[in-house]
Specification:
Helix content is 35%, strand content 25%. The protein is α/β, with parallel strands linked by helices and 247 residues long. It has one domain: Spore Coat Polysaccharide Biosynthesis Protein SpsA, Chain A. The chain has a 5-stranded mixed barrel. Helix 1 crosses helix 4. The radius of gyration is 17 Å and the shape is globular. The N and C termini lie far apart (38 Å).
């Protein structure tokens, strides 16, 4: 396995415009994510940027970023475009798509996600889940839930479905964490397919992969890292960074 980590980032986020450069403890958010990816030691790290200012922010800190078409429809399309630019010969057979809005993701989780492709040969795409943080997660449509067929060890499971709705009945609710490790062929196949019926209905891109027949497996993490999607999330991230610096 020869992985590469690609971090898609664009300034035109609808709920929090300019969020890759949002300041957290004196550094732009994209710099925090980039450093976590480097610390993981999984493979080279490249930011797939839609805007020149993101490229500049990463480059000033010694990182590598490539400029991609700002009109690309999704982060998956953005990382594929960057991959074809930085690795046209196909040396990297595993592509980790690390979202640029998780400034505090544990570096160990990045490696754990990628290793799931080794543990499960039938797995086309690996990802992460965590237990619900509170009962409110169940009814919150902004929280994506994974329906898993867990392994006997309970440490990972094959994804049967992803939904924004509250799962019926008793049992754990697995909160999806937005990181994916693709086998390169799976990424190419995924991006070549149009948005699927279930994907459009739930507004969850990973359902396209399931409808294509690709296997998604999820590793269970202890807790979901902060994901910055709106101003309230950004305030929480800044508070967490301040608390960590004091302690």
């Amino acid at each position: 396995m020869n992985p590469i980590i690609l971090i898609p980032a664009r300034m035109a986020a609808s709920r929090l415009p300019g969020k890759p450069l949002a300041d957290i403890a004196g550094e732009p958010m994209i710099a925090h994510v980039w450093r976590r990816a480097v610390e993981a030691g999984v493979g080279p790290v490249v930011v797939a940027a839609a805007d020149a200012e993101i490229v500049q922010a990463v480059s000033e800190r010694g990182g590598r970023a490539v400029l991609t078409d700002p009109e690309l429809p999704s982060g998956s399309d953005r990382i594929l475009a960057a991959l074809e630019e930085v690795d046209p010969d196909g040396r990297h057979d595993v592509v980790v798509n690390l979202q640029g809005d998780m400034p505090f993701i544990a570096s160990s989780l990045i490696g754990a996600c990628a290793r799931l492709l080794v543990e499960e040969p039938a797995c086309d795409i690996a990802t992460l889940v965590a237990p619900e943080a509170s009962p409110a997660d169940r009814a919150n449509p902004d929280v994506c839930k994974a329906i898993l067929a867990l392994r006997v060890d309970g440490e990972a499971g094959r994804a049967l479905y992803f939904t924004r709705a509250a799962p019926y009945g008793e049992g754990p609710v697995w909160r999806h964490i937005g990181i994916y490790a693709y086998r390169r062929a799976a990424l190419a196949r995924f991006c070549a397919a149009p948005p699927s019926l279930l994907e459009r209905r739930e507004k969850l891109e990973q359902l396209r992969a399931l409808e294509l027949g690709l296997q998604i497996w999820a590793r269970v993490a202890e807790a979901a890292p902060i994901s910055v999607d709106n101003p309230a999330d950004l305030a929480a991230a800044r508070a967490a960074a301040e608390t960590a610096s004091v302690s």
